[in-house]
Amino acid sequence: MLVPYESLTQLPSDTFDNLVKEYLISQVEDGSFSGDGEHSMDRAMIQCKTALKQGLLVVEYNEEEESIGIRRKEDIVSQESAYD
């Protein structure tokens, strides 16, 4: 299930920031993001939040696993297409 951006903006700011940080850290681990230092992370967080607002990134809640995470929109679409 996708979580609407408007719902994300109603979260406490620390919760929203932690969700974004978790996504960015996962990108460092797989090589998609190479941030050094606090300023780099701050910029990346702003870019990630902008991408969420624009719909380039989406937040997906997995009811079965009771997990939540940020994903690229095209990854969600291609995953759903694979099940059709």
TrEMBL record:
InterPro entries: UPF0270, YehU-like_sf. The lineage of its organism: Bacteria, Pseudomonadati, Pseudomonadota, Gammaproteobacteria, Alteromonadales. It comes from the Bacteria. Belongs to the UPF0270 family. Pfam families: UPF0270 (PF06794). Signal peptide: none annotated. This is YheU family protein.
